[in-house]
Amino acid sequence: MTDKERIAEALAFCDMAKGKGENQTVPNELLQILASALRAKEEELESAKHSHYWYGTRFATLREWARGLGEESWHEFNCIVANGSKDVGIADIHAQNYNRLEHRAESAEKALAEKSKEYDRLRGAINGSGPRDLELIMAYEKSTAVLEKALAAAQERIKTLEGR
User: Fold this and answer.
1) What is the pLDDT of residues 71-85, one digit of tens each?
2) Does the predicted model carry a pTM greater than 0.70?
3) Where are the domains of the chain?
4) Concatenated DSSP letters for 85-103?
């Protein structure tokens, strides 16, 4: 069943359920809100369908035109579609930066979790009385702090990119 069919079915239910008297389980106001939301979703789906068609036809025409210009122009066209510029070495687009930073943040979180487990294991094994034990504890605390700082910086950068 398609989204459009589901919406039509839900709208039919809303119309059928309205005004059933005291035994009505769903208030009319709620049914009206639901029907309004469903109609808005139906309009959104139609708009998306139209946009997909509109851009698809233009892209197909541009692609055919670029193929006729020769190999170099075809390569430039593909670079524009992929990167937003015909130059291969341009700066990354927003989505690429966001994905890269998100990956770095996830990697930093994993590294921090692994370091924390190792730190806890070592801390339990070290009695802390000797100078070497204290040195190991301080080194681990320092490396964990560096990882936490890197993770916080990556997460802050992601928040900045999300705000764009």
Assistant:
1) 888 888 888 887 777
2) no
3) 3-83, 94-162
4) SS-TTPPPPHHHHHHHHHH
